[in-house]
Amino acid sequence: MTAKIEIRDLSKHFGDLKAVDGISFAVEQGEVLGFLGPNGAGKSTTMKMVTGFLPPTAGAISVCGHDMLADPLPAKRLIGYLPEGAPAYPDMTPAEFLDFVAGARGFRGAARQACVDQAVDRVNLDEVLHQRIETLSKGFKRRVGLAQAILHDPPVLILDEPTDGLDPNQKHEVRELIRGMAAGKVIILSTHILEEVAAVCTRAIIIDRGHVVLDETPAALAARGRLDDVFREVTSRDTRAGASA
Amino acid sequence: MSTAPLATGFLSVTGVLFRRELKSYFATPVAFVFTFIFLFLAGIFTFYLGGFFERGQADLQPFFAYHPYLYLFLIPAIAMRLWSEERKSGTIELLLTLPVSMSAAVLGKFLAAWCFTAIVLACTFPIWITVNVLGSPDNGVIVASYLGSLLMAGTFLAIGACVSALTKNQVIAFVVSVVVCFLFIVAGLPVVLGFFEGWVSQDVLDIIAMSSFLTHYEALVRGVVDVRNVLYFLSLMAFWLVAGAVAIDTKKAA
Ligand SMILES: Nc1ncnc2c1ncn2[C@@H]1O[C@H](COP(=O)(O)OP(=O)(O)OP(=O)(O)O)[C@@H](O)[C@H]1O
Ligand SMILES: [Mg+2]
């Protein structure tokens, strides 16, 4: 089975606000798709729909051939998801939390321990493994969220701002991790760090007011000029005013 | 990675959620504080208000008589955090994007909370021993009373869980749950029935009295384990759990 995500005419309206307004794209195995866009552009909302948390107002989502809307559980099994802000149960330790996620994903016994150990190892969580999550620093919380997302070695990874709050060393390590996993997976990540796109992504989509305004490779993007300038040029300043208009 | 088969059955997944929830009560002082307050208040009600010793009877009538009023405040305090906390902290997004069905999530959480109240209730066993030392009570009646108490606690919890799904604010969840549970209690009181008497038909009056926790609970406490009383609580629980699931589904995004 090759990994693949297909999204067609996806929309999400909150009352009058069209947070996501007819987005379509397909991502193939091996691609690392970077989601860019101003605050409130609809990046997180799109990810919440793709992962089956939010029901879309309209549109279709297919994850490796499984329809997320009609039959969510098989699709959810194939996805690893780091939600925005990396939420986790504050009164658990990372060890307990990862054990819980592994259990909820169906791992039992030795396999359960093995996948937790592997995830802990990949994001360097050893030193805080038995400290309550509420007392962890922001960067470690993010790493717990990442570990939770990759623990079942999913064919599809959706990461909402995975490097937000990480120190430069960790940013580097997480980018290495993503690059290392990319070959066998579909990866979608969102970021506000434009250089990150050049560093890890094979393709960039810029979203503005719920629309895709640009979809090309980082190389093509770089050819247009400085990333910051391109970003400013294709996106609007006042996202909310534009979207609800 | 591993090739071991995954345990993705409904019960198996519900069990994982159940264990996480139940452990969370004991990860904080909640369990200790709650158990202490429950036992303390139950003691006061039984010995001072209920006149446990003065009555000179070997039964637990005064102990069980006050449970509806204890639960009225204590159960919403447990239930208020069930979903509002998940929504507020954003962990609901994590939970509902795991391959976990809504019914497993609702049931796992509810059963953990119910199991916790059962543990607290079990901590009152010394009083059961006491009556057996002091006299010879009808232990069958006491078992039926414990059953009634547990069923009533579960119903309060199901109501509280549903209300908790409707708001991110735990204070609001608490207050609204108390009010709803209060209505279910007082529906059977003579004052309320007297208020309706005369201007509603006898059928309506019967329905109001029938819908009260008290009517069914008191029957169980008297030792009457009628299937209808048990079914009453179980079907109310089911109703509120389903309503809770619908509430989560419609409210999770907001
Ligand atoms: N539950 C909700 N109810 C109402 N509006 C919402 C809700 N969730 C998101 N929105 C709105 O939808 C729009 C898109 O939000 P979204 O979180 O997808 O933006 P984003 O691209 O992820 O932004 P950021 O870069 O700041 O994370 C915003 O205007 C936001 O206020
Ligand atoms: Mg976002």
The fraction of residues in strands of chain B falls at under 5%
How many beta-strand elements of chain B? 0
Shape of chain A: globular
Number of alpha- plus pi-helical segments of chain B? 14
Helix content of chain B: over 70%
Strand content of chain A: 25-35%
Which ions and ligands are bound to the chains?
A: adenosine-5'-triphosphate, magnesium ion
Taken in chain order, the helices and strands of chain A follow as: EEEHEEHEHHHEHEHEEHHH
Any idea what the CATH superfamily of the domain at 1-78 and 198-245 in chain A is called?
P-loop containing nucleotide triphosphate hydrolases
Radius of gyration computed on alpha carbons of chain A: 18 Å
Largest sheet of chain A: 6 strands, mixed
Overall average pLDDT of chain B: 88
**So what's the overall shape of chain B?**
globular
Termini separation of chain A: 43 Å
Largest sheet of chain B: none
Most extensive chain interface and residues per partner:
A-B, 38 and 29 residues
Describe this structure in words.
The complex is a heterodimer of chains A (245) and B (254). Chain A has 245 residues and is α/β, with parallel strands linked by helices. Chain A has a domain at 1-78 and 198-245: P-loop containing nucleotide triphosphate hydrolases (Rossmann fold), CATH 3.40.50.300. Helices cover 38% and strands 25% of the residues of chain A. Chain B has one domain (4-253). In chain B, 78% of the residues lie in helices and 0% in strands. Chain B is globular, with a radius of gyration of 20 Å. The mean pLDDT of chain B is 88. The chains are: A alpha/beta (245), B mainly alpha (254). At the A-B interface, helix 2, helix 3 and helix 4 of A face helix 1 and helix 6 of B. Residues 14, 17, 19, 37, 39-45, 240 of chain A line the site of adenosine-5'-triphosphate.
